[in-house]
Structure formats: C-alpha cells, structure tokens
Write a structure and sequence with these properties.
Blueprint (H helix, E strand, L loop, with lengths): L4 H5 L12 H12 L6 E5 L6 H13 L13 H7 L6 E5 L6 H9 L11 E6 L6 H12 L5 E7 L7 H4 L3 E4 L5 H15 L5 H10 L4 H14 L6 H8 L7 H10 L2 H12 L5 H20 L9 H13 L2 H17 L6 H14 L13
Parallel strand pairs: 1-4, 1-5, 2-3, 3-4
Helix pairs in contact: 3-4, 5-6, 8-9, 9-10, 9-11, 12-13, 12-15, 13-17, 14-15, 14-16, 16-17
The structure holds zinc ion.
C-alpha cells in the first residue's frame, strides 16, 4: 500500500461521512433540502478540522447533475470532477500564500460571470483574514450584492481579524476540534474496512498525535502502516512518533507522589536508554497532571481517556493533594520552558523530577528514600 493512500481515499465526500461537526452538517443539510442556502458562510476553527472538506462536499451538493440536495450522487461528471480536484467552478484560494494575491483579485473580478460547468460557482477563500486590502474590498463589494449563482465559503483560524462588515454578511460556524476518541474510532473503522491488522493502543497514540485533526491523524496512520510494513502496532507507532517513554510517565509521577527519589532516578536512567524526547516527556507529564487535577474535581472529566489512562489518573488522584498537583504542574511548565537552556536535557529532566520531590509535602512519620 502506498503512503498517503488512506488519507485521500477516506476523505469524506458526503455530509453523512463527515466526522464530528454535527451542528454544521445539520444546518447545511437543512438549508440544502429546503432551498434556503445563504450566499456566504464563514467557517472558523483551527487547521485540519474540515473546512476544505466541507467546502468540497457543499460544492458537490450544489453542482451534482442529479440536482441540488444534501445527498449528491458521487458518480456524475461534476461529482467526479470535484473529487479529482479539477472542477472549474470550485475556486480555492489560500489567502495566506502571498503568491496568490493577484489571482485572488482576478478571481473576484470574475465573480459576476456565470458558472461554466455547474450550477453554482463556489469560492473557498482560506485564511480570509490575510487578504490584501484591495482584495478584501473587492470581496466586501461582492458580499454586499452577491450574484445568484455564487456561494462564498470563507475560512479563517483568526476571526477576530475580520471586519464587522464581513462578519455581518456571513453565516458563521465554528468548527470544533475533534476529540481523540472520535478520531480513534474513525481510524478503527478505516482499518477494519481495509483489513489491516492493528493494536487498539496504537490507534489511541495516533489519534492523540493528530491533535484534533482527522486529516493529520490519517496521514500519520498512512505513515504507520508503511513503517510497520502493513500492520499497526503500538511499539511501532510510539517509535515512529518519537514518544518513547511517555508510557512510563504515570509510574514516574507515582514515584514522585510517594517521595521515592531513588526509584524515580533509576526509572529515568532506564528511560534514557530509549533516547526519548525529554521535552515530550515533560509535556506528557503536564497533560497527566492536568487530567489528575480534573479527576479530583469530577470523574466525568476524564471520560475521554483510554481505560488504561483513566486507571492511572485515578490512582494518582487518590495520592496527590490538590496543592501538590498545582505546584508540580507549575514546575513542569517552567521545566518545559527552561529545558532548551540546559546544557544537558536529561540532567534538566532529573532536576525537574527531584524538584517536585523536594517540594512534596511530607506525611507525618515518613522517611524520604535516597536522603
Ligand atoms: Zn453527482
């Protein structure tokens, strides 16, 4: 199997296949089915949450030869052209890329011309807040008197930078980051369909590494399949992601909570053999401390973690005081910030762990090991 194959093959082509973003799916499906489509939509949200995917689906819905509906056929000439990225009435502009500035101006000047292949011209302008003043004014003018045959899909990661005049002319949707559980179940579905052998833990690591983006997680999945020569195992994925040692963090924090300096140091010495990314370990520590603090407030707050992680979090929540958690978290933050300044990353990591132990509140009658 070629790299990148799954990421492309499993890109959603209908609203039914869209992962997450229920509110957008419902609103657009309803608008399409009742013929009440707005002429300009603004999608906000971080990268990789589905802005261009939604635009492509919408372009298909509007231009499918079987008629405007929320369920395009996927087979006709127009549907196929959109899938293959060669549909002339879907005009995509990335305003963040400077070289496209003149193209944008030209594109907007041609707005009034009728579509040449389909029913609607769909303009997707990504990172719209970065348009030049000239292009922006042209866009604004078009939004004031939009031609019948045009739908604008504007996308931005930074809606604060848009003028109120633009915001007021668009129907705005915020695309949410997808939780790792949602992404994990999508990866599982894909691999089952593709009959690729996998370990569930591996998918969890991939889903988390996708950081809210299905596209990124799918790209990583493709790499993992190539890396694992056709299967997806946890060990391979961890090695590929460079997250060696992250699984040791709960145990390390438990040493810290118990004041076991000797155990903690010998654990770090074992970790060092895997040449881990020490920054990633501190970042994993921060994330775990955060989960533990949340779990102390409400057990519901850790529902999205894997069963193994939930167990580790609950065990730590039972032995760490809220005050110590706050202090350890603060140490982890400054440790992360200062690590690049240290002459040796491992030593800095050891000092961070020993600092946490040194400031740990001792219990009555207790002897700290190693001191
Ligand atoms: Zn079609």
């Amino acid at each position: 199997m070629n790299q990148q194959v799954l990421a492309r093959k499993w890109r959603p082509t209908t609203f039914d296949q869209l992962i997450g973003q229920e509110h957008v799916r419902k609103a657009l499906t309803h608008a399409l089915n009742t013929g009440r489509l707005h002429h300009a939509y603004l999608f906000t949200g971080t990268r990789g949450v589905g802005k261009t995917t939604i635009a492509r689906i919408l372009a298909r819905c509007l231009n499918c030869e079987t008629g405007v509906s929320a369920t395009p056929c996927g087979e006709c000439r127009n549907c196929q052209a959109i899938s293959d990225n060669r549909f002339v009435d879907l005009l995509e502009v990335d305003a963040a890329s400077r070289t496209k500035v003149d193209d944008t101006r030209e594109l907007l000047e041609n707005v009034s011309y009728a579509p040449s292949q389909g029913r609607y011209k769909v303009y997707l302008i990504d990172e719209v807040h970065m348009l030049t003043t000239h292009s922006f004014n042209a866009l604004l003018k078009t939004l004031e008197e939009p031609p019948e045959h045009v739908v604008f899909l504007l996308a931005t990661t930074d809606p604060q930078k848009l003028l109120p005049t633009v915001l007021s002319r668009c129907l705005q949707f915020h695309l949410r980051d997808l939780g790792p559980d949602l992404i994990e179940s999508h990866l599982e579905h894909v691999l089952s369909e593709e009959q690729v052998t996998f370990e569930k833990d591996a998918l969890w690591h991939l889903a988390k590494a996708g950081r809210g983006s299905v596209r990124d997680a799918m790209t990583l999945l493709d790499q993992a399949i190539a890396h694992g020569e056709g299967t997806v195992s946890a060990d391979n994925v961890i090695e590929m992601l460079g997250t060696q040692g992250v699984s040791e963090i709960p145990q390390l924090l438990s040493d810290i909570a118990a004041g076991q300096a000797t155990d903690a140091l010998s654990r770090i010495s074992d970790l060092a053999r895997e040449t881990p990314d020490w920054m990633a370990l501190i970042s994993g520590m921060q994330s775990l401390l955060h989960h533990v603090a949340i779990a102390q407030v409400t057990d519901q707050g850790i529902n999205h973690l894997s069963p193994g992680e939930q167990k580790a979090v609950r065990e730590l929540a039972a032995v760490m005081s809220p005050e110590f958690l706050q202090l350890a978290y603060q140490f982890a933050l400054t440790g992360y910030r200062d690590l690049p300044m240290a002459s040796d990353a491992r030593s800095a990591f050891e000092m961070l762990v020993l600092r946490m132990i040194a400031f740990r509140p001792a219990r009555a009658g207790e002897v700290i090991s190693g001191s």
